[in-house]
């Protein structure tokens, strides 16, 4: 007879459903807890630049451009104004000290000079006449005093006799008193005359001194006007190259106007423009170098011009080991300007990424696969034309994308 078999719980259908459910739950759990949910972007590896993070000496320098200039440049400014009657030398010519460059004409200066000269001549005559007049007056005063002394001696004799006669009661008191008054009056007059002569003599000396001072000032003015007239002939103050002469015959030149310059060719310097960002780090004594005729030549900052124009300031650099042979005025050359001594550091090459991230993060290539790059925060320090100094976030041997991040958006992972 047939037996009824017990019904099995784990049928093949149930096993299949349970396994599928477990697989689905596991997949969901992995997706929720372990899956990479970061935003991704596929990029073509051959269109980006990948650079190695390295360790080496960080040379703190910047690349600037210098222009060769004469060590000394002498400006030619018109000391006296006038119109140009003759131009003897053109710009670009070599000149010697004292060589005549221009001749100017100024009728007003000549007229003023003649007036001052005439005034000086008049004062000379006045001084001579005054001295002569005072000399005559001095003789007259001496003669007057001499006459008074003679009269005083006579009156003294009379007074002495009258006093003796009056004592002997020979003459009256009236005659005695008259002789006394005459003598004492003339004696007082002589004292007054002496004081008057002393005052007149002092006054005469004062008049002569004032006339001499006036004459001295006038003659000095004449001398200055004479020098001004001589400055109508413009001469080279030093020997060198007359690099510019911006005047022509017939043109009018104002006093103080710049008419050219002379370059002293006994030495050269480099005038260098530097970004204002470095103004606090640039000072006299800093070194630099540049390439010329296949050789490296040293430079040293001698002067810093602190005025900033269009975001740049200028410095003068000289050649401490001598001017390179063959260098010419106006030549320009790239210069490596050192801002500090080299020091060991972690380095990444300069690239377009900095303008997109500000140096705060980069994409670092995954070492294990090499097929993706992940966003990572970093800290950068100093910069030179070749490298950034890495302070935090990267290790030597790692690889980073250093080209522009402009097309990567905010994605955290780049897939190659």
UniProtKB/TrEMBL annotation:
Its main location: other. Keywords: Coiled coil, Membrane, Transmembrane, Transmembrane helix. The chain crosses the membrane at residues 15-35. Pfam families: RND-MFP_C. It is found in: Cell envelope. The keyword Cytoplasm does not apply. The keyword Plastid does not apply. Residues 117-144, 189-221 form a coiled coil. Residues 345-404 form the Multidrug resistance protein MdtA-like C-terminal permuted SH3 domain. PANTHER family: BLL5650 PROTEIN (PTHR32347:SF23), EFFLUX SYSTEM COMPONENT YKNX-RELATED (PTHR32347). Belongs to the membrane fusion protein (MFP) (TC 8.A.1) family. This is HlyD family secretion protein. It comes from Spirosoma utsteinense.
């Amino acid at each position: 007879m047939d037996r009824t078999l017990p019904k099995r719980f784990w049928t093949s259908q149930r096993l299949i459903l349970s396994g599928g459910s477990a697989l689905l739950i596991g997949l969901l759990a992995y997706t929720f807890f372990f899956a990479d949910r970061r935003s991704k972007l596929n990029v073509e590896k051959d269109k980006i630049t990948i650079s190695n993070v390295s360790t080496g000496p960080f040379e703190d320098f910047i690349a600037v451009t210098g222009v060769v200039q004469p060590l000394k440049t002498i400006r030619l400014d018109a000391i006296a104004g006038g119109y140009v009657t003759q131009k003897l030398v053109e710009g670009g010519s070599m000149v010697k000290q004292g060589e005549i460059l221009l001749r100017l004409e100024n009728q007003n200066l000549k007229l003023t000079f003649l007036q001052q000269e005439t005034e000086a001549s008049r004062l000379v005559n006045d001084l001579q006449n005054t001295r002569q007049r005072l000399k005559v007056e001095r003789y007259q005063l001496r003669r007057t005093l001499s006459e008074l002394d003679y009269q005083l001696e006579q009156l003294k004799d009379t007074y002495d006799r009258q006093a003796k006669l009056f004592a002997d009661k020979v003459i009256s008191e009236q005659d005695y008193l008259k002789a006394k008054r005459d003598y004492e009056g003339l004696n007082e007059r002589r004292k007054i005359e002496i004081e008057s002569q002393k005052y007149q003599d002092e006054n005469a000396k004062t008049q002569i001194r004032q006339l001499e001072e006036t004459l001295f000032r006038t003659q000095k003015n004449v001398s200055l006007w004479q020098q001004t007239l001589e400055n109508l002939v413009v001469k080279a103050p030093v020997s060198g190259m007359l690099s510019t002469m911006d005047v022509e015959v017939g043109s009018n030149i104002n006093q103080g106007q710049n008419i050219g310059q002379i370059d002293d060719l006994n030495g050269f310097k480099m005038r260098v423009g530097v970004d204002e960002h470095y103004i606090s780090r640039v000072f006299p004594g800093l070194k630099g170098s540049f390439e010329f005729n296949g050789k490296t030549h040293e430079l040293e900052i001698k002067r810093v011009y602190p005025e900033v124009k269009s975001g740049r300031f200028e410095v003068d650099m000289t050649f401490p080991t001598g001017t390179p042979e063959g260098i010419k005025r106006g030549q320009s050359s790239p210069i490596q300007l050192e801002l500090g001594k080299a020091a060991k550091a972690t380095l990444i090459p300069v690239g377009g990424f900095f303008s997109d991230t500000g140096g705060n993060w980069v994409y670092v290539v995954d070492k294990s696969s090499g097929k993706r790059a992940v966003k990572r925060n970093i800290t950068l320090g100093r910069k030179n034309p070749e490298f950034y100094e890495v302070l935090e976030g990267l290790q030597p041997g790692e690889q980073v994308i250093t080209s522009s991040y402009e097309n990567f958006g905010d994605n955290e992972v780049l897939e190659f």
